[in-house]
Amino acid sequence: MSFSSAKNRTKGHRGERLKSRRAGFTLLELMLSLGLIVVATALIGFIMQMYSRNFTEKSDDIRREQLGRAILNMIAADIRALVLEQEYDGSVLAAQLGAESDGGDAGAAASGGGDAGLASDSLTEDPTLASESEAPNAVTDPNAMFTSDLPPGIYGDQSTLMLTVSRIPRRDEYLVQQASVLTGSLSDAPGDIKTVQYFVQAATMSGVSDEMAMFQADPQNAVAASGFSSGLIRRALDRSVMALAEEQGNLDSIQRTGNLIAPEVISIQFAYFDGIDGQWLYEWDSSQQSLPWLVQITLAMQSNSGANDTPLPAGTPLMNLTFEDQKAYGLEVYELVVAIPGANLVAADAAAADAAAGMEAVGL
Question: Which residues contact 203 (CB under 8 A, 6 or more apart)?
Fold first, then answer.
């Protein structure tokens, strides 16, 4: 073997060793690769977390919008189903019958019928009807009376709405609902005339309890599970049941009766449009003002982020919060204006107007 071939063989083995060494990763390259993997994983996790948070917030917004729309539609349905008690004025009918009897007597006298016709004096106006039509309205101070003593109609202020509705009961409502011994509520009776009340209850143990609180596993609802319930309350009771409870002094049971339909509602506000004077009012009494033309409903619910950062207690008046406060607390405000059918056809002094106009007031 020559010296040159041995030298070439030695160089070949050295080149193979260098190639084998360069085939793997160095420690620096491995650390850089691991760092890039960690950064990419963290970036992907952050993007997924941000997407999940935005998806949750949008889902909560949609759920609140659906809940707000359902609540407003429910209150609007009750407002459209309200009834108003009006005094029956029989003087107009008595006068009309008296005029017809006078004509019959005149015809009978001309034909020689004698006393065959009715005498006009026999159709005198009923004194009881006259006294009812001329007597002023007996309801002068609704706040000093029981709820059952108020005539059917609509009564309310800025934060409470009470109205008498007439609706055919559903099939399940014909069954008597037994009162709960634990809550101390009243047993409602089947009927088509109900007194319905809407208001926001602050956190209390003496009001309407949240029956769904025990099924909520969120530890933040521990206060509600212990008995302190708050939210929008709908109380619907038969007028006879409420009258009996008030007569017996069982007012605590009335306060505990109702349905907590929306714990998410922080505040509710009502306004009433008087079509006669053309202005919005924050108090209404049907015993003195008949029916409003329009009822404005405004309710506020707090977002989850706002409730976690700065929780607002239920029952806070919405009028005390500015637009900046509503934004800071994360309040979502929903509003609906409801028109009462036929409200503009009923004047405040309808009985007096009918008596003055005669049968023309009813289109005859």
Answer: 223, 224, 228, 229, 230, 313, 314
